[in-house]
């Protein structure tokens, strides 16, 4: 049936009969292994009767109206498998990643058409990754039936686009994926965005706990690639290695060489990161030692005045306060952050003299583990609402009494 709109002359039946859908392929690589793991087949669209390119979304919308969405969807996978055969013949370990849009196939589950096509092309099911596209899913049971059937035949199952749209965390429990693909909503600009880094780390930890490997999608820069690898990504996909291209132009040797080059860069990057962290901790130690040198010479009655001056002397400090051996705060909190937004002031307030910190990590870890010093992970300070790390260190005053110096470092100084 013809559809005409905005100069488009489209016959969905002709596209299906002539198998004229357009696909491109993008590599999925492991920098750690210095190898290409596989290729994802991306359905881009087709040409209309006038030779004008029509994108996938436009096509699927009209195919749905014509009742042909399932045929178009199946054609994409058939063409993906047929295109992959030549790569597979010479690379028996290569994986093919193909989309499974549950909202389209949920009424046709049980047809075994995909399995039949895979068998027809003599591709091992273990080389096929079925990417569950988590758009609106009305029938969870049908989706799980599909997944269980194909997993039992040896196919790998991936959950695509985690972090975007409908791909919410509850989908992990329904899909039980072998691979989780994290969307660029999370990874874009991750090289300098602390919040995205923390979200990404949480997703990595979750993936490891459920036994899934992680692929990061749409990585565009080497900086993004370095950070996602450092944070635990297993595989990377994106233009940093290769734009999606026609299968005829896929050169696995060329992509492998690019991967090897990036692995060398990653090694240099990690050396720089380690050196930077060592330098930062040296600076922390020097500052803490300088502060303690001043405190041990002071009478405890003068601690408040002393730490007020210390905060003014060091711009990298956010808060300074002192605890006794039982975790009680013996000074007020000296801080540079005195112009807090009014809406924050109700929930973020510097602790006052007499506050008990016995349940805080910077107190109970060094206390219980007999450590002279402890450094926390970055966290949001209850004193200021800003990101900080706290370093706590024991010292003795002139009377031989034990105290704990606590210093919150300004987030701008933290190498994250």
From TrEMBL:
Gene Ontology molecular function: cyclic-guanylate-specific phosphodiesterase activity
Name of the protein in its database record: EAL domain-containing protein
Residue span, EAL domain: 5-258
Pfam families: EAL (PF00563)
Organism superkingdom: Bacteria
InterPro entries: Cyclic-di-GMP_PDE-like, EAL_dom, EAL_sf, Sensor-like_sf
Organism, as annotated: Clostridium pasteurianum BC1
């Amino acid at each position: 049936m013809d559809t005409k709109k905005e100069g488009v002359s489209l016959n969905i039946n002709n596209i299906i009969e002539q198998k004229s859908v357009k696909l491109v392929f993008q590599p999925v690589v492991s920098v750690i292994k210095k190898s290409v793991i596989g290729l994802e087949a991306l359905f881009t669209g087709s040409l209309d009767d006038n030779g004008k390119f029509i994108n996938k979304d436009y096509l699927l919308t009209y195919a749905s109206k014509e009742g042909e969405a399932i045929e178009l969807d199946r054609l994409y996978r058939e063409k993906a498998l047929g295109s992959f055969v030549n790569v597979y013949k010479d690379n028996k370990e290569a994986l093919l990643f193909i989309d499974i849009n549950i909202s389209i196939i949920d009424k046709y589950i049980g047809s075994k058409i995909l399995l039949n096509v895979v068998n027809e092309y003599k591709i091992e099911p273990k080389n096929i990754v079925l990417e569950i596209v988590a758009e609106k899913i009305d029938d969870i049971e049908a989706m799980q039936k599909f997944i269980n059937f194909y997993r039992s035949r040896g196919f790998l199952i991936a959950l695509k686009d985690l972090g975007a749209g409908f791909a919410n965390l509850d989908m992990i429990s329904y899909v039980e994926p072998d691979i989780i693909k994290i969307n660029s909503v999370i990874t874009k600009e991750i090289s300098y965005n602390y919040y995205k880094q923390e979200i990404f780390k949480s997703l990595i930890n979750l993936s490891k706990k459920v036994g899934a490997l992680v692929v990061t999608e749409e990585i565009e820069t080497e900086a993004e690639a370095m950070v996602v690898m450092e944070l635990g990504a297993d595989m990377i996909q994106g233009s940093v290695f290769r734009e999606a291209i026609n299968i005829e132009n896929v050169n696995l040797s060329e992509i492998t060489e690019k991967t090897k080059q990036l692995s060398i860069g990653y090694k240099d990057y990690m050396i720089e990161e380690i050196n930077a962290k060592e330098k930062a901790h040296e600076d922390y130690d020097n500052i803490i030692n300088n502060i303690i040198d001043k405190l041990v010479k002071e009478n405890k009655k003068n601690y408040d005045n002393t730490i007020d001056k210390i905060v003014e002397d060091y711009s990298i400090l956010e808060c300074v306060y002192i605890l006794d051996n039982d975790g009680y705060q013996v000074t007020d909190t000296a801080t540079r952050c005195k112009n807090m937004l009014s809406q924050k002031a109700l929930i973020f307030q510097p602790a006052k003299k007499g506050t008990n910190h016995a349940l805080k990590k910077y107190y109970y870890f060094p206390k219980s583990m007999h450590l002279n010093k402890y450094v926390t992970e970055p966290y949001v300070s209850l004193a200021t609402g800003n990101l900080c790390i706290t370093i706590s260190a024991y010292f003795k005053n002139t009377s031989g009494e034990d105290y704990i110096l606590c210093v919150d470092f300004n987030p701008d100084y933290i190498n994250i």
